[in-house]
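REVIEWER CHECKLIST
Item 1: Sequence provided? yes
Item 2: Single chain? yes
Item 3: Sequence as submitted:
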Amino acid sequence: MEEMQQTEEDYFKFIKPYEEAMENLLVRIKSLNEDYRLKYKNYPIHNIQSRIKTEKSIEEKLKRENRDTSLVCAKNYLTDIAGIRIICYFEEDVYRVTKQIKKYSDMICIKEKDYILEPKKNGYRSFHLVMGVPVYHTDGKEYYPVEIQIRTLTMDLWASMEHRIIYKGEQIQEEHSKEIFLEFAETLRKSESELYRLINHEGQDR
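Item 4: Structure as written out by the authors:
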């Protein structure tokens, strides 16, 4: 497996179109939320986070996948170099936002995975999209992937707690931690569902 031989300048040149693609998509998502607020006096998105993988992070992921740690290989195989996380209020909002993003006619939905309908074994729930976003050059355009994770506040709380415990070195027996997090995920799901029904029922009564 070859090691990265690129300079820092090579990395910044490589990453620039991913940044442009991500910023393009961020503008669209923020505009979508504002449009909901103006039309329906409500908005589905609580907050939006974004990040670009560092050179070290790209290299580490390629190593985990047993690939050459070159920027060419990164471009060919990685779809999460640019990432956006959208935090919604309720599960229904996640699907509304997902549907709207997939409607962008100048973008390509490269892949999607519904971890809400089919949660991971540890209880993780979120909707993942990879959108191909056009970046224009003097000689044409090229699509760059941007990974989008769309989840609710409770799903994000679960993911943050799970990451804090599992990946930050806390000493908890593996089987016991799995049981705790599965129970935690189910409790949050039920609470969110009940709150959604309560809010919508009261809204209909008014």
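Item 5: Key structural point noted by reviewer: The longest helix spans residues 8-40.
Item 6: Recommendation: ____
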